[in-house]
Amino acid sequence: MENLNRIKGALADAGKTGVWLAGQLGKDPVTVSKWCTNTTQPDLQTLAKISDLLQVSMRELIVNKNG
């Protein structure tokens, strides 16, 4: 599967866990796990919330496919 986001890396950089993120977003930890493994992708609103919580830009959460 192609990597489309780098939520897992951003969580590691911030010293946070998927369980922590799930709690902050009111989501099931399994859902966050699927985002971290790029099985599914969060919608843009959720991605914006994740960027706020991890204090990174949305751009940093998205893998650049052009280089």
From TrEMBL:
HTH cro/C1-type domain residues: 21-61
UniProt KW Protein transport keyword: no
Pfam families, A to Z: HTH_3
Taxonomic superkingdom: Bacteria
Protein name, per record: DNA-binding helix-turn-helix protein
PROSITE patterns: HTH_CROC1 (PS50943)
The keyword DNA-binding is assigned to this record: yes
Molecular functions per Gene Ontology: DNA binding
InterPro entries for the chain: Cro/C1-type_HTH, Lambda_DNA-bd_dom_sf
SUPFAM superfamilies linked: lambda repressor-like DNA-binding domains
SMART domains assigned to the protein according to its UniProt record, in alphabetical order: HTH_XRE (SM00530)
Record keywords, A-Z: DNA-binding
